[in-house]
Amino acid sequence: MTADATTRDRIDLAGQWQLAFDPDGEGARNGWTHGSWPDDRTNHVQVPSLWNLTHPDAEGAGYYRTVVDLPDRWAGQIVRLHVGGASYRTEAWLNGHFVGSHEGAYTAFRFDVTAAARPGASNELVLRVTSLSRTRLVDGMALKAMPVSKQSWYYAEGGLWGDVWFEAVPPLSCQSITVEPDLRQEAARIEVRVANAASESRHVELALTVTGPRGEEAAGWREPVAVPPGTSGHLVEVKLPRPLAWSCEEPNLYRVRAALIEGARAVDELTANFGMRDFTVRDGRFFLNDNPVYLRGVLLQPNYPVGLIAPHDPGMIEREILLAKEAGFNLIRVHIRPSVPGYFDLTDRHGMLVYAESSLCWIQDTPRLLDHGRREITAMIERDRNHPSVVFWGIFNEHRAPAARYADALIRTARSLDPTRVIVDNSGGTLAMDQDYGWADRATAVPNRETTRVPLHDIHLYIGAPVTRAACD
């Protein structure tokens, strides 16, 4: 079960989809999203999967189509369309109605499709996905100006690479759980975001149950709450006396279940894992749970064999984590893009620290860079902030000029979302070649629960051949 889990009704859309590429912009003109699908130019492809695997030269826009029956029992429910990942921009239509768009290559997103859904009938779903191009603009977007990791180095990746599914939730539902552990105070601050689709407030009970690492009930809380229309947050501090700390040697995991209760019935529920741990930097050393820790890390490059963005073999990521741990490493830097779904569930379970990094990489400085940065960092942190294995947030990588302009604003964004982790502004400072040894002032870190930067000796040294005298010295 993933970090945020539920038993809600869902329909998995994995399987064969239709795909029609649209290099000349015909789709919008000819009504591909409104019942005039071009059968004569349809390819059949597997979802989830990047289209590069079967159409390596394709780029730009592609329209995906599938037809799915939604059950009668979904009438009166909120229907959502979830996409686990698509590169790079996605627009969606259900039964000819536009239901939303999303920008970004590596994080999941969802659309509320209730108004367009037809429970008890067939539903036509069309997604327009636009990949970027190394040679031209796509929908006005330049590859090097977008937050897409190393796609500008190798190749542009396009298509629905993540799982796609429909989900039905009640009109009153739990949206998310955020846990802020406080090991010193022996407490956890738990915020439950609740959605109310009605036009009037609902009065229910919110119940929290925390299960400890050994399966015991560690804490409970239950009180009446008023839920106004729209989305609201409900923050509860739960005491956890003598908590079992999460560490690399003992990766103790807690689990919280949030339930909305009306009468004797649970209207909706959601669960999430978390760990009681504290990580920071002070006086030139890193500390895990107030104990100094020497970081021995490896760097995980952003591409996988065959599957590219995600591995074709789901077991591969666990084998890599275990091999790194067996080799004596205690940290993985998940480099210049958010991890694939499920990765941090495994690092949590196996006791591997993580440096999680945004996809801003070597993005060109444009008027949209700050917008890209805030969107990508928010999506990364909101998805992964409950994972105890994640101890660093990284903003930029080797990108000195944009970091100087935008790092302050993006650090404020990261800190507002999560007070508990160390934030690195710009790992490596800039590209440090053999002849360039002026890195000492180029990277800083913000300790957890603080806002002031401290110098970080973060060196990216690329030794050439033959090795220079300066590198030897």
What is the alpha-carbon Rg in Å? Answer: 23 Å
Question: Helix proportion of residues, in percent?
Answer: 10-25%
Strand order of the largest sheet: 24-25-26-27-28-29-30
Main β sheet profile: 7 strands, mixed
Q: Indicate the mean pLDDT.
A: 93
Low-confidence stretches: 431-435
Describe the 3D structure:
40% of the residues are buried. The longest helix has 18 residues, at 400-417. Strand 8 and strand 9 (97-103) form a beta hairpin. The N and C termini lie far apart (51 Å). The strands form seven sheets. Strands 24-25-26-27-28-29-30 form a seven-stranded mixed beta sheet. Helices cover 13% and strands 38% of the residues. It has helices spanning 26-29, 315-326, 343-350, 369-384, 400-417, 469-472; strands spanning 4-5, 9-12, 15-21, 43-47, 61-69, 78-83, 86-87, 89-94, 97-103, 109-112, 122-130, 159-160, 164-169, 172-182, 187-196, 202-211, 217-227, 230-239, 254-262, 265-274, 279-282, 285-288, 291-292, 297-300, 331-334, 353-357, 390-397, 422-427, 444-446, 454-455. Helix 2 (315-326) runs parallel beside helix 3 (343-350) and helix 4 (369-384) crosses helix 5 (400-417). By secondary structure, the protein is mainly β. It has six helices and 30 strands. The radius of gyration is 23 Å and the shape is globular.
Quick recap:
13% of the residues lie in helices and 38% in strands. The chain has six helices and 30 strands.
